[in-house]
Specification:
Chain A: This is 60S ribosome subunit biogenesis protein NIP7. The complex is a heterodimer of chains A (210) and B (183). With 210 residues, chain A is an alpha+beta fold. In chain A, 23% of the residues lie in helices and 26% in strands. Chain A has two domains: 6-115, Nuclear Transport Factor 2, Chain: A (Roll); 119-199, PUA domain (Archaeosine Trna-guanine Transglycosylase, Chain: A, domain 4), CATH 2.30.130.10. Chain A contains seven helices and ten strands. In chain A, strands 6-10-9-8-5-7 form a six-stranded mixed beta sheet. In chain A, 32% of the residues are buried. The mean pLDDT of chain A is 87. Among the domains of chain B are: 2-58, no CATH class; 87-150. Chain B has helices spanning 2-16, 24-32, 38-51, 55-58, 87-150, 156-168. Chain B is elongated. Classes of the chains: A alpha+beta (210), B mainly alpha (183).
């Protein structure tokens, strides 16, 4: 486990900023005003395959632990305590935000949803009839939209809520609000990126691949 | 290894000093008849030694090797990663990234607004054209109706003709029915 490098920090923040608004700076602010206040930091933990896992099998086989680098959002005090655990024995700590790919990109995971929902810039609320299709991995069609933030541009990150304000997942807008008004009821408005259904669907790989 | 071999060959003269009979330094001495002191010889040797470079110093690209772009480390840079863990530098990076994103979203919004304006203008123009076309059609219809009314009551013969036209659907004279007879 190690802190992020400069480039990594930049990519992680860029991804978070595509969904979150100005309140993103509160993410790394100290939790109180005292001089020795604790604060949240980012940590990278490289996952490795299980020892008995043969090399010739693809790494996305269920049960395999990949070599991806998970990015965790964790309290500094806890991160310091975690140094007592050896790398091989440490599976996870804090909140997993996503993972860094081998090409240096950052992918957000569904586990980052509580943080994203709190700081999101654009939001969409879907009707009860649209919850199931979304939670099964579908995109959001116009007919299922209850309401959404005015003036949302297209191709920007958005957090999906149910009508009773429960975060369900996040995605990217397919149309701007103005364009979506003219759209047919079956037209797509949001492309899904992650949904809470993944906790069940990808139960095997979600936490093991970090 | 090629570098070490090159090094040995290049340094052969230097290592042996004046041991090679064919070298210029040994031949030149007696022919000129000038007795050179050790200092001069040492100076020449030093000069020669300066010319030898190891392969690393020459910075020649290695052959028959593929070096991926990301793997090649820039020269003279310190090894290892530079971590960012203090609040100030993290805040700086965050501010930079957010300013970038803000600008991006702003430009997207402006673009969307402009596109919306263009679309609206086009819609208004299309509506106007449609209206004009409809007006022209109505006008023609009206003029045709008026013309008919001005013509007065049609005579009995004309009336029959009209009835006939309505029945057959055309003004053409009814053709005689074709008959086929056997024997």
């Amino acid at each position: 486990m190690r802190p992020l490098t400069e480039e990594e920090t930049q990519t992680v923040f860029a991804k978070l900023a595509s969904i979150c608004g100005n309140s993103l700076k509160n993410l790394i602010a100290p939790i109180d005003n005292s001089p020795t206040a604790d604060r949240y930091v980012f940590r990278v933990q490289k996952d490795r395959k299980t020892p008995y896992f043969p090399n010739w099998l693809p790494v996305d086989t269920p049960g395999a632990r990949t070599l991806s680098r998970g990015v965790y959002y964790v309290l500094l005090s806890m991160a310091n305590l975690a140094t007592t655990v050896s790398r091989d024995n440490l599976l996870s700590l804090g909140t997993c935000l996503g993972k860094m790919t081998k090409t240096g990109k950052f992918k957000l995971h569904i586990t980052a949803l509580p943080i994203l929902a709190e700081h999101s810039r654009y939001k969409i609320w879907i009707k009860p009839s649209g919850e199931m299709p979304f939670l099964y991995g579908g995109n959001i069609v116009k007919a299922h939209v209850g309401r959404w933030t005015e003036d949302t541009p297209e191709h920007t990150g958005i957090v999906v809520f149910s009508m009773d304000d429960r975060p369900l997942g996040f995605g990217v807008t397919a149309r701007s609000t103005a364009e979506a008004r003219r759209l047919a009821p079956t037209g797509m408005v949001v492309f899904r990126q992650a949904d809470a259904g993944e906790y069940l669907r990808d139960e095997d790989s979600l936490f093991s691949s970090g | 290894m090629p570098p070490s071999r090159t090094k040995t060959i290049k340094n052969k003269h230097a290592a042996n000093g004046s041991g090679i009979s064919g070298s210029k330094a040994t031949r030149a001495g007696p022919m000129d008849g000038i007795v050179k002191n050790k200092r001069a010889i040492a100076a020449i040797l030093k000069k020669r030694r300066k010319k030898t470079y190891s392969e690393k110093e020459l910075d020649i690209p290695k052959l028959n090797m593929i070096t991926p772009v990301g793997v090649e480390k820039p020269k003279g840079k310190k090894k290892g990663k530079v971590f960012v863990d203090d609040r100030e530098s993290m805040n700086t990076i965050l501010a930079m990234v957010q300013a970038d994103k803000e600008g991006e979203i702003e430009s997207k919004m402006i673009k969307a607004r402009q596109m919306e304006e263009i679309r609206e203008a086009r819609r208004v123009e299309a509506e106007k054209k449609e209206g004009e076309r409809k007006a022209a059609l109505d006008e023609t219809k009206e003029s045709l109706r008026k013309k008919r009314k001005r013509g007065g009551k049609p005579t009995a013969d004309e009336d029959l003709d009209v009835k006939d036209t309505l029945l057959t659907g055309s003004n053409a004279v009814k053709a005689k029915k074709k008959r086929v007879s056997f024997a």
